[in-house]
Known about the structure:
By secondary structure, this protein is an alpha+beta fold.
Amino acid sequence: MTAPDPRLARLLDKQDCVELVHKLARAIDRCDADLVREVFHPDATDDHGGFKGTAADFVPWVMEVLKGMRRTQHMIGNVLVEIDGDQAQGEAYFIAHHVLPGDGGDRFMVAAGRYLDRFERRHGVWKIAHRHAVYDWSTSAGASDIWDRANSPGYVFGDRGTSDASYSHFARTARAA
């Protein structure tokens, strides 16, 4: 019998960490406070510049910030994770799109940067122990959403919260398991 390949174990650990980064972006865009909480260890911390504190306090803070936005979409790329036993360091690039209401009409704001995450595996489960958002650039312009959302039969538009189509989509997988 051959010993398991340590590269496979490292790859699986990295994948667990990468999924946490993606799941947190999804949770923010769907305004899903429970899902945000799920990716952090109970004693985790967060530094978003305008917020520095516990992850438990970050959740209501970010949900309040999101109430002031019509839509958001965080794109994650260039994810690097380095595993060291039950700890890991990660860097994930982000481009975050925001539609902000304004007096002269909606504004489209894009912020880009990187998330520097510290992951820890506790009791066999990887979660985020600390997140630090580093900002590289941003831009803003008038929003120009060309879809007539009220009069577009057959189109499914994204929605904040669990009424978004992705929740029923993933529920099918859970029911099948």
